[in-house]
Design goal:
The structure is a single chain. This protein is of the alpha+beta class and 207 residues long. It has 7 helices and 4 strands, in the order βαβαββααααα. It has 2 domains: 76 residues, Glutaredoxin (3-Layer(aba) Sandwich); 113 residues, Up-down Bundle (Glutathione S-transferase Yfyf (Class Pi), Chain A, domain 2). The chain is globular and about 45 Å long. The protein starts with a strand and ends in a 14-residue tail after the last helix. The structure holds glutathione.
């Protein structure tokens, strides 16, 4: 049975799960859901995901929500030793970037994205953008420092850490804001975007 995944591709959390699915070349069916696509408020969907959010995964009856949990599950099942490092320290190193994306980078960048792109124009507050932009630059400085010393975020191999960060950086680098140049992040982003199946998950424009 192919994987089933619900979620619109414009969602950064769906992109995370889809980047993992594409990178691992897993047979799947993606069903658009969320925002204009609806579905998330139906009783059938809520029975799978009581949060009414995307993404939701169904792997032959095993239902999972939370994008990072989905990425960890698929990587542990299909990519032990590569995307999912076997060594506990290597795995912890990769895994912490997933938490960091959710707890630091996303809260920093979210307001800029909402008030530049996602909200309807009448609900946008231009004053919300600059503080968010600055906080995101602080996060990018942290990533830049790491990527100046190694090819991927947790060493010389691509891991779940890169999977979690790539959709966020994709969004950041395509937002209409002033950005400090980050050559190491750009090199890393270029390498991820150059992988054969990445473009199926990370779409443009970032709306
Ligand atoms: N922590 C959850 C957050 C999920 C989430 O907030 N998803 C957003 C899209 S990024 C959503 O479902 N928004 C409502 C919608 O699309 O209808 C995860 O990582 O999966």
């Amino acid at each position: 049975m192919p994987l089933k995944i619900w979620g619109r591709l414009t969602s950064i959390n769906v992109q995370k799960a889809m980047l993992c699915i594409e990178e691992l070349d897993l047979p799947h069916e993606r069903i658009d859901a969320g925002l204009a696509y609806g579905i998330v408020d139906t009783p059938e969907y809520r029975a799978r995901n009581p949060n009414g959010l995307v993404p939701t995964l169904d792997d032959d009856g095993f239902v999972l929500w939370e994008s990072n949990a989905i990425v960890r599950y698929l990587a542990a099942k299909h990519a032990s030793g590569s995307l999912w490092p076997d060594d506990p320290r290597g795995r912890a190193d990769a895994d912490r970037w997933m938490d960091w994306q959710t707890t630091a980078l996303q809260p920093a960048m979210g307001p800029a994205f909402m008030h530049l792109v996602r909200l309807p124009p009448e609900k946008r507050d231009p004053k919300a953008v600059e503080p968010s932009r600055q906080k995101t630059e602080d996060c990018m400085a942290i990533m830049e420092n790491v990527l100046g010393n190694q090819r991927f975020i947790a060493g010389d191999r691509m891991t779940v850490g890169d999977i979690a960060l790539a959709p966020a950086v994709h969004r950041w680098l395509n937002l209409p804001v002033t950005r400090q140049r980050r050559p190491y992040i750009e090199r890393w982003y270029g390498e991820i975007m150059g992988r054969p199946r990445t473009a199926r998950a990370l779409i443009l424009p970032v709306v």
